[in-house]
Amino acid sequence: MIFNAAQLLRERPGATRSYDLEPEFPVHRGHVELLRVPKGVLVTADIDVILEAECARCLVAFGYPATLHIEEVFYQQVDVDTGARIESGAQPGDFLIGLDHTIDITEAVRQYSLMAAAMQPLCRPDCPGLCPECGQDLSMSDCGCDRTQSDPRWSALAALKQRLDG
Ligand SMILES: [Zn+2]
Ligand SMILES: [Zn+2]
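Above: query sequence and zinc ion SMILES. Below: predicted holo structure tokens.
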């Protein structure tokens, strides 16, 4: 996911390039627009990726699709023709155009993937998870444990119900 921007950097602000991404894990497909701006290049991209996750209930590893919308300025560090240092005002953590005038969006894709990752990913919406008694993966088969008794919230409810009934 590296683009040579040497030619674009010789052009005026407003000049553009666009690219389609080749599938390369975790990227499924994507479209990238480069726009020359005074301080470097504004990268706008829509990228379909496969995010890897571990199910919050049954702990199985699985992948699920997500679309990243990336919008980042990559700051120019050196003049293309003279190699002279350019004071672009980039802050630590900002994305930089390489000294060889290439734009590498790999790190941006990684950061946006982290932001897009679900907090409580489930392998499927109705994943039954693991048995709290024996650890059996309940989507494979039921283990036969009496799980209603093991949960203190349930026994408290059962006790309350007994009192009300009694
Ligand atoms: Zn699961
Ligand atoms: Zn069990």
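The radius of gyration is 26 Å.
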